[in-house]
Amino acid sequence: MDNPQSQLLIRKYLQGTATPEEEALLESWYDEIAFSRPEPETKPDYENVGLEILSALRKEQIVIKPIRLWPRFAAAASIIFFIIAGLFYYNSSQREKHNRTELLSGKEILPGGNKAVLTLANGQKIILNNANRGNILNIGGLSINKSQEGQIAYQTNGKPDAGTELKYNTVSTPKGGQWHITFSDGTEVWMNAASELTYPQTFGGAERVVTLKGEAYFEVAKDRSHPFIVKSDRQEVKVLGTHFNINTYDDEPYVKTTLLEGSVAVSGVNGDGPKMLVPGEGAFNDGKSILVREVNTEADVSWKNGYFSFKRADIKTVMRQFSRWYNIDVTYEGTVPDVELTGRAGRNVNASQALKILSYFNIHYKVDGNRITVTQ
User: Fold this and answer.
1) Are strands 102-103 and 195-200 parallel, antiparallel or unpaired?
2) Which among 252, 292, 244, 296 is positioned nearest to 268, based on CA atoms?
3) What is the CATH classification number for the domain harbouring 175?
4) Contacts of 135 (CB under 8 A, 6+ apart)
5) Is 53:33 a contact under the CB 8 Å cutoff?
6) Which parts of 113-207 are beta strand (E)?
7) What pLDDT, in 10s, does the model give residues 321-355?
8) Between residues 209 and 346, the one the model is more confident about
9) Domain total for the chain?
10) How far lies 276's CA from each of 230, 237, 240, 305, in Å?
């Protein structure tokens, strides 16, 4: 983007004529400058950041009134990737020079979508993305239905007897897949790619217990007499009714639990905890201890809302997310680039568009079928 384009973008924003994509691009400039300062945890001074943007882009003197952009940031998930460092550190000719991507295969890598397999208690498997909409299965007083939007919902007639043996179902998403489930109690779960959730067909007994591998976002139906518990390899999360995200992928350095609403208690299998979270906090469990601190909740649930969001993330963190969503294998040649990447992109773009973030940081890579090799 050259200077006249940047200048026009700010004018359109102030006039209220910018598209959602253009609004998000400008707001991401604010965000990057603010959080690149020595103390990123402090509240950004957006008025001064705005003036810095104008200065950084070497525009003519423009008088603008102070505006607060942060509340609008979440509204613009789009097909544009906001390559902040590229906009500031390279002009258009330099970006072209550094874009040394070697495409070894002409095949485009498509984004993921709604794909999952439901495994019933008797071992029967149903490929959910291939199943017809409407009623999928009836088991006694239980029915499983697939909506037009591609989610499944459990419905029961009455509650199971306390002594009834629980029968468990499992929904698993592949790399490049996601799914949305509504349990019979009204709890909703959004599953990310390469994840697995095991749960009873109907909730009975004193607790509602599910087991998670991978990543999922939960909106738990309130029921004070029946706590909801999410178990994973390294921890247990106990709630009564709340909204939270759990990332428990094996290839991540820690299990991360992010709370958006309500409260949760996080306990490690090693005996650490329980640690209570309030909205806006995250628990980081490395298997030895649990650290609680404030987090960027928007970024942590961006996948559920349909986009990638990175803030000063290292290259391996970014590529792990791309690998799961695009069903690609990632390898590295030589030294892994020591850079921090900040940006956003819709998850509906092809891999080639999302991978442009690497070019803006002078990171080279090769694409061969479904394999991406980062070559620095």
Assistant:
1) unpaired
2) 292
3) 2.60.120.1440
4) 143, 144, 145
5) yes
6) 113-114, 117-119, 125-127, 134-139, 142-146, 152-156, 168-173, 177-182, 188-191, 195-200
7) 999 999 999 999 988 888 888 877 889 989 988 88
8) 209
9) 3
10) 15, 10, 13, 26
